Each structure stands twice: as structure tokens, then as C-alpha cells.
Amino acid sequence: GENVEQHPSTLSVQEGDSAVIKCTYSDSASNYFPWYKQELGKRPQLIIDIRSNVGEKKDQRIAVTLNKTAKHFSLHITETQPEDSAVYFCAARSNFGNEKLTFGTGTRLTIIP
Amino acid sequence: EPEVTQTPSHQVTQMGQEVILRCVPISNHLYFYWYRQILGQKVEFLVSFYNNEISEKSEIFDDQFSVERPDGSNFTLKIRSTKLEDSAMYFCASRVESNQPQHFGDGTRLSIL
After folding, report:
1. Most buried of A71, B45, B61, B101, CB within 10 angstroms?
2. Given an 8 Å threshold on Cβ–Cβ distance, is B56 in contact with A100?
3. Distances (CA, A) of A92 to A33, A49, A66, B34
4. Residues in CB range of B23: below 8 A, 6 or more apart
5. What chain A residue is nearest to B49 in terms of C-alpha separation?
6. The pLDDT value given to residue A97
7. What is the 3-state secondary structure (H, E, C) of chain B?
């Protein structure tokens, strides 16, 4: 089955600086890669996603890049703000079968004011 | 924007008791999921449900677990005889059709005493 590794587990960034979180996946059949932001005690919220036919996607201060050959994808947050502090999870999904999500282990991002 | 709703938000149960967690997926969604998140850990897939039957289940989803869609709106997860290690946040998710994002509910925090 799919295995998703995520690094780093914790990340502290000065407000205004950029943050980068990296994930690798094992199953070459995975073709959809969402990123979720989870605030304490809340639901995972989809913030951006990318499909395997695209190398990069951007939405305001958030961008995701995908390298299918190397099987890794990254989340980039620019001009970080205190409200970006949360746990971020990457995930991978195959279009086959029931399309379950396999999550990474999460990154606790802290923005230092 | 329509949301997945879950009840209760917090359930405290004695070990060995049965518990039912309830979810109301988004109304036009066809695919339903349960995930579990033990405190401080990643989100793990439990089971997927489509066309009134289980389409896939994980190793965690043993004989003590069952799911049901008793009517056109509710989707339930039952744990027959709870164990201490069942303590976790349980998230319901749904999606409308193939290749679309999953939307998560706010979760039910299950505490087994």
C-alpha cells in the first residue's frame, strides 16, 4: 500500500519568512496530492491540492510543487503570518478503487511574531 | 457552503460499552469515509463506503467496527465493545464523485475510560 513520509515534524519560522514542508510517497499509482491544515481540535481543512499532470500550483501565498519522477511534493508558504500556525498534513490518493487518502505524519508549523 | 456534520462532538464511554458515532455527509455526495486520529498522530483511514456497502477497510477496522447508512442522510460508525486504545478523534469525510476532494467533518472526540 501507499506510504507517505513528511518532513520536518516541527518548523518554526519568523513572521514574513517562507516555510517549506516536504513529502514523499511510494505508490506510483498515486495521482492526487492534497494538503490539509489542521488547527487544534478542528477538522483537517483542504488548503491546496495538485494532480499528477501538473508540476506546480499556486494560490496566493501558498504553492505546491510535484516531482513525479522522484515521487515527492512540497508545500510552500510565503510571507507567513501568525494565523498560518497549525499542523499541516500532506496526503496521497490513487484514482483506483475507493480513493482513500493516505496521510503523512504532519508538520507543526509555528510562526514567530 | 455545505459541510459534513458529526455528532456528538465529544463522547465519553466506559470500556466494553458500545458507541455509535454519527455523520451527515454533504447531501449530493456519494462516497463516505471514516478516519481516525490518535492524539498527536496522523490521520488514518478506517473504512470507505459506496453504494450501500463497504468498498475498503483498513487493518484497524476489525470485527468490533461496523458502518451503516440507515437512511438517506446519516452515516454511522459503531464500535461494539470499546477498548482503551479506541480513544481518538474520529473524522467522517465525503466526496461527490470520482476524482474530487474529500470534505471532512469537525470530528468526534471519543474518550474510553
Report:
1. B45
2. yes
3. 5, 10, 12, 16
4. B4, B5, B6, B32, B34, B74, B75, B76, B77, B92, B94, B105
5. A98
6. 65
7. CCCCEEECCEEEECCCCCEEEEEECCCCCCEEEEEEECCCCCEEEEEEEECCEEEEECCCCCCCEEEECCCCCCEEEEECCCCHHHCEEEEEEEECCCCCCCEECCCEEEEEC
- Cell numbers describing residue B46: 478506517
Residue B5 has which C-alpha cell?
456534520
Spatial separation of the C-alpha atoms in residues A95 and A91, rounded to whole Å: 13
- Residues B47, B41: contact at Cβ < 8 Å? no
Q: Which three cell numbers stand for residue A29?
A: 499509482
Cell numbers at residue A92, please? 496521497
- Residues of chain B positioned with their CB less than 8 A from the CB of A98: 31, 48, 50, 55-56
Say which of A97, A100, A106 has its CB closest to residue B42. A106
Low-confidence ranges of chain B (pLDDT < 70): none
The model's pLDDT over A61-91, given as tens digits with 9 standing for 90+, comes to: 999 999 999 999 999 999 999 999 999 999 9
